[in-house]
Amino acid sequence: xxxxxxxxxxxYQVRKATEIACGDAFLSHRDRENGRVVSVLxxxxxxxxxxxxxxxxxxxxxLKFAESELDMIRxxxxxxxxxxxxxxxxxxxxxFTVVDCRDNRTIRIVEQGNPGYIYIRDGQVLDxxxxxxxxxxxxxRKLRITECEPQPEDRVLFFTDGVTEAGMGSFGYxxxxxxxGVVEFVRRVLLENPTISARGITRKIVxxxxxxxxxxxxxxxxxxxxxxxxxxxxxxxxxxxPFAAGRDHEFAQLIETFDGRKIICGGTSSGIIARELGRTLxxxxxxxxxxxxxxxxxxxxxxxxxxxxxLTEAHRLLESRTVPTETNAATQLVELLRESDVIELVVGTxxxxxxxxxxxxxxxxxxxxxxxxxxxxxxxDYLKEVNIRYI
Amino acid sequence: MNTSVTVEICTGTTCFVMGAGHLLNxxxxxxxxxxxxxxxxxxxxxxxxxxxxxxKPPFARVDQKLLSDVSIESxxxxxxxxxxxxxxxxxxx
Lengths: 391, 93
Prior knowledge:
The complex is a heterodimer. By secondary structure, chain A is an alpha+beta fold. Chain A is 31% helix and 26% strand. Chain A has 10 helices and 18 strands. Chain A has helices at 48-67, 72-82, 161-164, 178-192, 198-212, 248-257, 267-277, 308-320, 329-338, 367-380, and strands at 6-14, 24-30, 37-44, 94-102, 106-112, 118-121, 124-126, 130-134, 142-148, 155-159, 222-230, 234-239, 261-265, 281-282, 297-298, 303-305, 342-347, 385-390. The longest helix of chain A has 20 residues, at 48-67. Chain A is elongated, with a radius of gyration of 23 Å. Chain B is of the alpha+beta class. Chain B has one domain (5-92): Glutaredoxin, CATH 3.40.30.10. Chain B is built from 3 helices and 4 strands; from the N terminus they run βααβββα. Chain B is globular. The mean pLDDT of chain B is 86. Classes of the chains: A alpha+beta, B alpha+beta.
C-alpha cells in the first residue's frame, strides 16, 4: 500500500565547463488532482546553446505527451519524427528518459538513448524486466519500456552520459565511471544514509562524477535526477503574530503539537511562542558582517529566524536557484524547506506598524503577500505540497 | 564590583534595516578604555519598535536600560556613563 507516499523529485546538474548553457534538460510536473508525477530528462546532441534548445524541446514534448493520455510508444514516435537523426553523425538529436509515477500503483519508465536508470529497493539495485520497441524508421533508435509496482522507500535514479562517462580516458577511469561505478557508489551512499533525500543523492552522484574529471571540471553536461517514494517529511513554518492577541496561546501550541520539523520566522512571533511555552530564546552574536539578522535558538524548534528580511532573501534564493556562498538564516531556511515534502505555512497577519514607516531605507513587504509568493515558488519550482493558513 | 557593562543590540527586522547589523560590529570599534569592559550580545527582537513612545529604531539595551536611535557613538557614550555611574557609586561607599 503506497497511498500516503510522497514522491520526491529532484535533479542536480553541472554544465560542461567550457559552455555557457547546459545541454541537458530536466522537467517535471506534479498533477495536484491525482498525485501523478511525470519527470523527463533529456540530453541534447553536442553541447552549449544548441544542445540546450534540443534538450529543452525534447523534454517539454515528452512531458506534454506523457501527461496526455496518448499512448507512450506513439508519443515517442512522434518525438523521434520531430527530432530526426542528425544527417552528419547518424545519431539522434536528443535522448530522453521519462519516469511516470501514477496513482501510487505503477511506475513506467521510457528510455531512449540515456544510460539505463537505477532502481533501488531496500538498498539493493533491482533488475526489472523491460520491453524494447523499435520506431517505424528502422534506425537504431529503440524505446526501452519498464513498468513496475512501486513500494514505499523505492527510488529511481536516472542520469545523462555525463555521469557515466565522467573521467573517461583518464588513468583510473579509461572507460569512464560507467553505470556499474555509479551503482557501486549509490550502494555505499545508501549504506551510510538509508534515508537520504532525492536532492541529497543527486548532488552526491554529480559531485562524485566531477571528482573523476581532470581538475574537477565537467567534460560534458552532467545531470542526475531522482524519484524517491517516501513517507512525507513535514515542516511547519510559523511567521507573524496572530491578528488577535487572544490567539497567541493557540498559535504557540502549534509548535507543541506538530509532528515534523518546526521553523519560526519572525522576531515578534518567536517572542510570543517563547513566552507562551515558557521557553528561552538565545540569540548568539554574529561574528563578521552579515546582510541578515542572526539565527536564534529555542528548544524544540529546528530554526528560529527574523521574519521579513530573511523570508525575502529565502524567496529570492529559491526563485533564482542561486547557490549561496555564505551560510546565513535564509540559506538555512531554504535548506530545511527543500528537504521537506509537505510544508504548512501558518501566517499571523498582525501588522507591525514600524514596518510601514516610509523613512525605512528598504521596502519591507507585507508578510501575507510574501508568504503567498513563497507558497507559489515552492509548489511550482520545487513540487512541494504547501498549505497556507492565516491566523 | 562588576566592571563590565552589558550591551544588547536588537536584531529584529526594523532595527536591522535601520543599522543594527552594523552595530553588531561594535566590538571592533570600541576605544581602548572600553575593551574587555563591554559584554556585547545580539538580542532577539525587543518588541519595542511598534510603539512610537519608545523612540526610533535601532534599539539597544545598555545594562538593561533601553536606548533608541542608537549609533556606535551613542552606545559608547552610554557605556562610559554606565561605568562612571558604577565607579561613582563604588567611591561613595
